[in-house]
Design goal:
Length: 107
């Protein structure tokens, strides 16, 4: 005949369930934080690629006259070159605030 082990006391079971729930909530918050940074990361990557294309286009352009403005098709690339540092600063501020919010900051 097989012997059965007695069930665990309810206080042990409840403590285990609370620990598992707390760990699950912590993992869920971490996933939410990482997912919220995907969009700024993708946006920054696209802007970085645009900056490289801009540099290549401007360096490869064949301007015969030195004192002229860039062609209209190149002006968007010049605009993107200006937006890169501004976007990087904005992403940095968002990242900084989220890190501080995780530490209990009120920002």
């Amino acid at each position: 005949m097989a012997t059965m082990t007695p069930p665990a006391p309810s206080r042990v079971v409840n403590r285990t369930h609370r620990a598992i729930r707390a760990q699950a909530l912590k993992q869920q918050a971490q996933k939410r934080k990482v997912r919220s940074l995907y969009l700024p990361l993708i946006f920054g990557g696209v802007l970085l690629i645009a900056a490289m294309v801009t540099t290549a286009v401007i360096l490869a352009s064949d301007s015969d006259v030195e004192d002229t403005l860039p062609y209209a098709s190149e002006q968007i690339f010049v605009l993107l070159m200006w937006l890169i540092p501004v976007s990087a600063a904005a992403i940095g501020v968002v990242w900084y605030k989220r890190v501080n919010a995780g530490r209990g900051g009120r920002n």
